[in-house]
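[agent] plan:
  1. take the single chain provided in the ticket
  2. run structure prediction with default settings
  3. attach structure tokens to the ticket
  4. add a short note for the reviewer (M.T.)
[agent] executing step 1
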Amino acid sequence: MCYLEGMNKFEEKRAERRKIILTEAKKLVLERGIYDGAMSELAVRAGISRQQLYNYYKNLDEVLEGIMGELVAHSYLARIADAAEVDTPENLIRYAILAFKDLSPEVHDDLLFMNLYSVYLATNQRDGAERRSARILLFERQIVRGQEAGVFRTDKPLEELTATVSILLAGYTFHCETLSENARARMLGEEMLHRLADMVLAYLKGSPTPAG
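[agent] step 2 finished; step 3 output follows
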């Protein structure tokens, strides 16, 4: 029993340290982007040595994959994929965007990280390696359902559709963060979020973008 208790405490400590590493890594990426030398800076921020960091993650790619794993497990954006299929794909997407008024800081950070990670994957291919997917599958289930119903476009790969939607939403939320309190409140109000949803849905349908 003592041995098992000791192992459990060891695993709990490792899980806690891993969470600290990923939390600091996400902050670092959001502040400075993804760059050479990030592992050294990450070790400093996490309060551990470079060798200790390697005991958890061998390289930056593993760290980034770990952050994405956390987003998949806990992010509001990721939970969209598990939305109950009790409404049309268009309405589910619209409802999710309308929720931005309450979740904008979290949504902005997650979208920004996903976009940075997408660019990193697209521009850092190793020689002879297969092209790595951006893995930004925002609204994946809803888009596929819309395609099957003949509502959403099929002329572009799913990864491109989801990545473009995330870029549109990230740009919007980033712009909101630069505004005054009153202007930001207006941009995150129901009327403007409906317009944002109209823009996203127009893109997914391959329709002309609605006039602002």
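[agent] step 4 note for reviewer: Residues 75-212 form one domain.
[agent] ticket updated
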